[in-house]
Design brief:
mainly alpha, rod-shaped
Length: about 35
């Protein structure tokens, strides 16, 4: 239903944000070496 669609979108955005944050931290860490 509509609720599940909204939850899926929120979940995907949250997961994508977490992945982006991890990538930024990895890149920042690599540049610090």
């Amino acid at each position: 239903g509509e609720l599940i669609d909204k939850l899926t979108i929120v979940y995907n955005r949250t997961r994508q944000a977490a992945i982006t944050t991890e990538l930024v931290e990895i890149i920042a860490g690599a540049e610090a070496l």
